[in-house]
Every structure is written in C-alpha cells, then in structure tokens.
C-alpha cells in the first residue's frame, strides 16, 4: 500500500541523514518531503525540524532563494513529521510522526523535483553539461541519450534547461576573473563582483 509513513525507530548522527532516510522512504511510497521549519535552537543550531509533504502548505524557503514560485502541487496535505536531536539518545536524531495521513494519491518519483535532484549523480550532471557545451543537441535529445545510458535516471527536459542556466551563470563568474584590473576593481566597489 503506497503513502505509508516511514519507520521511526532509527537514530541518526546528523539531521541530513535522518531527513534523507525519510525522503528515500517517501520516494518508494510515491510522495516527497520538505523541511518546513527549524526550531529549538541551541548555540545557533536547530535541534528540531518540522517536515511536511510537498503537497502540504508552508514550504520553508530560505531568504536567499529568491521569489521565483515553483509550480505547486499543493493539496493542503496534512502529513507531518519531525526530526529531533535527542538528549536521551546521545544527541542523535530521531524521527516522529505528527500526522501520518495524506489527502492525495501517490505519484511517480520522476514527478517530484525533490527526488529528481537527489537522484542525479555528479557524473551524470557533468555529462549533461558537456553535451550542452559541445553539441547543438536539444534538451529532448540529451534527455534521450541520458535515458539510454542510465535507464533508471529521473530526468526531465526542464531539468536539463535548469542545468544549462546554472552552467551559463557559472561561466559568467569564471569569466569575470579575466576582466582587466581596473574594471574588476570598479565592479567590486559597486558590489557586483
Ligand atoms: Zn501528502
């Protein structure tokens, strides 16, 4: 039966590991999770994260993330979990279920950007960048090549466009090192570099 909540008996050294285990489970069950809120700060470090289904409300957006809105598949899903750093477990992280129910059907992993991002290896990303840079192949053609090489890859044409955008940006920054010194100084003063 899909959409089952994950087991919560394990302890993890870091919050990232704990979250990843939940996300891996969610992927198998046909949903995806986001970290919604960090709280219980001690020494500037959170000891608790609230976790929501991506179909729920109130996704946590770091301030630096900009204002671009992603296409939403929110249904107001009530599924909620937490991961907490437990003093009684040697400061290790443990998950807990706050609401184990979803209000939507399960979906394929490829339909969740959260799962696609996590599944793409560094090598695959590099290969895509090389193809973008050195060929005039379309995103669709690159996607087909990647899928032939890696039949289980989770990749969409949109992901390839995003990789292209990021690669272009990177080049602009690397290119800035070639500017002549005076221009570079001026740009630095203006806060552009
Ligand atoms: Zn849900």
TrEMBL record:
Give the protein's recorded name.
FAR1 domain-containing protein
**InterPro entries annotated for this entry?**
Zinc_finger_SWIM
